[in-house]
Amino acid sequence: MMNTDENTALLESLRFNAENEVIEFKEAKVSFDIDDLGKYFSALGNEANLRGLDFAWLIMGVRDKQREIVGTDFKNSEKSLNQLKNDMAQHITGGLIFRDILTTFPMVGEQRKRVLLFKIPASPRNIVTCWKGIAYGRRGESLVPLDQSKQDEIRRQSPMPDWSEQIVPTATLDMTLTSWL
């Protein structure tokens, strides 16, 4: 896990990007609807997959249009953040969950403000990530149901190859255990 200085540097690097298919900012000063969080998880994960990225970001505690840091009290303890992971995994395809939830406390004027950075993994190859059975996506910065062509594109992806079943061209039948040592 990164330290808070690294988390703050990451926040600053993300904050000055426009919202798009793989970056979402939410003010969430006190709370945030779990169903909306699940929809964003599905959308951002599916869009990261389609762009060949390993993950996407949802950042809470930042006003989305101006990207001004306002801070958040959402799930204000390590225990509640861990419980959130468990609660969400019950409704996401395959129990997929955040790769990490990073917390940082950047200075804003004379105060430190708490910001959460949710690292959302890309949906697995050839599997559309759904929240409560519905696939979501993004159209620019808008949350929308994932259109059929995007679902088809994900489903047509070949799964990762199983390297244990690959042919080793230099292997021979006369190789013995001692030849490996």
Structural features:
3-stranded antiparallel beta sheet; single chain; Methyltransferase, Cobalt-precorrin-4 Transmethylase, Domain 2; 4-stranded mixed beta sheet; globular; alpha+beta; 181 residues
Summarize the structure.
It is built from five helices and nine strands, in the order H-E-H-E-H-E-E-E-E-E-E-E-H-H.
State the end-to-end distance.
Answer: 37 Å
Spans of 5+ residues with little confidence (pLDDT < 50)? Answer: none
Question: Element order, helices and strands?
Answer: HEHEHEEEEEEEHH
Based on secondary structure, the structural category is alpha+beta
- When the domains are counted, the total is 1
| Sheet with the most strands, sense and barrel status | 4 strands, mixed
Envelope shape: globular
List the helices and strands and how they pair.
Blueprint (H helix, E strand, L loop, with lengths): L3 H12 L7 E4 L7 H17 L4 E6 L17 H12 L10 E5 L2 E2 L2 E2 L2 E7 L8 E2 L2 E6 L2 E4 L2 H8 L21 H4 L1
Parallel strand pairs: 1-2
Antiparallel strand pairs: 2-6, 3-6, 4-5, 7-8, 8-9
